[in-house]
DNA sequence: CGCTGCATTGAGTCGTATCAAAAATTGTGG
DNA sequence: CCACAATTTTTGATACGACTCAATGCAGCG
């Protein structure tokens, strides 16, 4: 381990899952000097659609939703980010989104200009960002299919299955309000709620605490519902 | 100009708009050796969802639609590509899509492995791909908003405006069938047709030749419709 | 001329949005 | 710990937009 590796990097929870995983300790030491840790409270608007697309940060812990807004004010979440994900678009000149923390979130923020320089010097870093960007693109395309073609029930079922991939166990914490889920799935609060109710009635899930804790009873049924 | 620059590169229509624009002549000479031109007929399936994600190519002329398919067979176009665009995802291991030529199309195809090697050697090429990928991501997110929240009329209006950006003039050729437009906008053929009819009735556009040639009479009206 | 494929038009249905109200949950101050 | 306010979720009634199914119109072509 490099002597000058900042402590916050060495102990970092996402040392091996974030973009930083592409760097060895000595490279990380240099990048580490550029970044600073920032903690934002749930609900904080981290950056906004009108802004200059300057944000570059790793999410150390927490979660962030990316939003687009129609001229008349309706919102659509176009992505959800969690631990280890990168926020921002170095080298892009447009396409800024609104980013809002949906939990208390710890960010490791870099000034865009110095982050761009760091990438130019370190091909592995740039490669890692390219691969991440492609994954995001594939997710965004998958979501086009969902938003354009799938029924409300299929969207909710797919959403729950997506949560199980990480949170896991038969029981999962839903980290979003009904409203946030609606934004993400392109549905209204009421429709999301009704789908939860119907899934409960069918014995496929059980829920309590205002529907924030969900137990999956019949995963196979969810799978098949998610396809319609 | 480098002596060994292949003629097909020097004369290439997209020398300055494709990924190749990031390369100088001597670099292009090397990359050029790896590629080969292929002409495919309209309707050709260039690559398919099940395949191995090996395709890497520049579109020299023509147009390609990228499709995803639901388990029960419905299609959703997740992107349209035109002259100068790049098809494929070097360094990505999943996320393959179906790509179908919607006109006779000329491709400059590279083997994925050698294209990856070329990118590793040439930072400018990799940077150019990163920037393109980010643009695609931004488009995909914009489309999420459209598909999730906008009315049929707004989608069709927005689609026509998008065509004007490139094809231009008051009059534009619609390069897609009603069915293809429906796939792209997440609508049925009938709904697309009805929207065209209503736009004609309102005097905002005029169309003939089975609706394949469209004249925009009131661009401002289209703009405002595209926002609902 | 009669195919064949695509676009248009029409009638009816279904799913989700909308509007409105009740119920459950969370948070706050006494 | 309880009472009360604020927020979120659930439930209900209704409306509307897009889909579905079906028929007709129109062009290109053998």
Total domain count of chain A: 2
Annotated CATH architecture of the largest domain in chain A: Sandwich
Structural class of chain A, please?
alpha+beta
The neighbouring-strand order within the major sheet of chain A is 1-8-3-6
Q: Could you estimate the helical fraction of the residues of chain A in percent?
A: 40-55%
Q: Alpha-carbon distance between the termini of chain A? A: 51 Å
For this entry, give a set of tags:
4-stranded antiparallel β-sheet; DNA-binding; Jelly Rolls; 228 residues; alpha+beta; Arc Repressor Mutant, subunit A
Give a structural overview.
- The structure is a homodimer of 228-residue chains.
- Chain A has 228 residues and is of the alpha+beta class.
- The first copy, chain A, folds into two domains: 7-147, Jelly Rolls; 150-225, Orthogonal Bundle (Arc Repressor Mutant, subunit A).
- In chain A, 41% of the residues lie in helices and 23% in strands.
- Chain A is built from eight helices and eleven strands.
- Chain A has a four-stranded antiparallel β-sheet with strand order 1-8-3-6. Chain A has a four-stranded antiparallel β-sheet with strand order 2-7-4-5.
- In chain A, strand 10 (205-208) and strand 11 form a beta hairpin.
- The longest helix of chain A is centred in the middle third of the chain and has 27 residues, at 123-149.
- Chain A binds chain B through residues 66, 68, 70-72, 74, 76, 78-79, 89, 91-92, 94-95, 97, 120, 123, 126-127, 129-131, 133-138, 140-145, 147-150, 186, 227-228, and chain B through 66, 68, 70-72, 74, 76, 78-79, 89, 91-92, 94-95, 97, 120, 123, 126-127, 129-131, 133-138, 140-145, 147-150, 186, 227-228.
- Chain B binds a DNA duplex (30 and 30 nucleotides) through residues 151-152, 177-179, 187-194, 196-197, 209-211.
């Amino acid at each position: 381990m490099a002597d000058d590796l900042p402590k916050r990097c060495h102990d970092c929870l996402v040392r091996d899952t974030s973009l930083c995983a592409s760097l060895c300790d000595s490279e990380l030491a240099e990048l580490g000097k550029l970044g600073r840790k920032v903690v934002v409270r749930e609900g904080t608007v981290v950056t906004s659609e009108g802004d200059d697309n300057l944000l570059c940060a790793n999410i150390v812990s927490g979660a962030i939703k990316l939003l687009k807004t129609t001229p008349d004010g309706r919102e659509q979440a176009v992505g959800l980010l969690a631990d280890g994900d990168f926020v921002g678009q170095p080298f892009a000149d447009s396409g800024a989104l609104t980013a809002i923390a949906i939990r208390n979130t710890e960010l490791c923020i870099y000034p865009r200009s110095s982050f761009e320089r760091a990438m130019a010097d370190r091909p592995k870093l740039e490669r890692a960002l390219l691969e991440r960007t492609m994954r995001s693109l594939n997710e965004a395309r998958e979501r086009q299919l969902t938003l354009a073609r799938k029924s409300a029930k299929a969207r909710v079922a797919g959403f729950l299955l997506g949560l199980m991939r990480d949170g896991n166990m038969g029981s999962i914490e839903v980290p979003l309000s009904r409203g946030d889920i609606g934004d993400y799935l392109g549905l209204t609060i009421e429709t999301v709620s009704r789908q939860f109710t119907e899934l409960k009635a069918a014995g496929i899930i059980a829920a309590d605490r205002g529907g924030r804790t969900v137990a999956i009873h019949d995963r196979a049924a969810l799978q098949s519902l998610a396809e319609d």
